[in-house]
Amino acid sequence: MKYLFYVFILVIISVSVSYSQVAVIANKSVPVSKISSGALLQIYLMKNTKWSDGTKIVVYYNKEQSICDKVCEYIGMDIINLRKRWMQMQLSGEGKAPVAIDGDNEMIKKVKSTEGAIGYVNISSVKGKDLNVIATIE
């Protein structure tokens, strides 16, 4: 009986983790309150490099697979193709790839301390933080 209880708890935990929401966050200096999936795609393709006020967009991506997968699904491009694009840009001298960040806490620190920064984290990590949430991905 104990075994079944533990299996049930593990199933509940895994289901709740797989359905967690992602928050696209930006530095408070960013002049955007909402962002569409298309606009976010242009940022992660490194095609849009400045905010409307001329501030440079500093792009971070979260290496946590489940969060990264949700953002990629939202923008309609998988991480492999994004990385290919980033590598092509670097090899051609066209630009730099976004900075890879390990986990939510580090992402929050980077975005909060970098003017024009954008990134994404698990929405539960945003509570009580002074961040500009510009999109929520379910």
Strand content: 15-25%
Which structural category do the helix and sheet elements fall into? alpha/beta
Integer tally of domains: 1
The H-level CATH homologous superfamily, spelled out, is Periplasmic binding protein-like II
- Unreliably modeled segments: 13-18
Helix content: 40-55%
Predict the CATH topology. Answer: D-Maltodextrin-Binding Protein, domain 2
Helices, by number, come to 5
User: What's the level 1 CATH class?
Assistant: Alpha Beta
Strand order of the largest sheet: 3-2-4-1-5
* Sheet of most strands: 5 strands, mixed
Question: Would you list the SSEs in sequence order as H and E?
Answer: HEHEHHEHEE
Distance between the termini: 34 Å
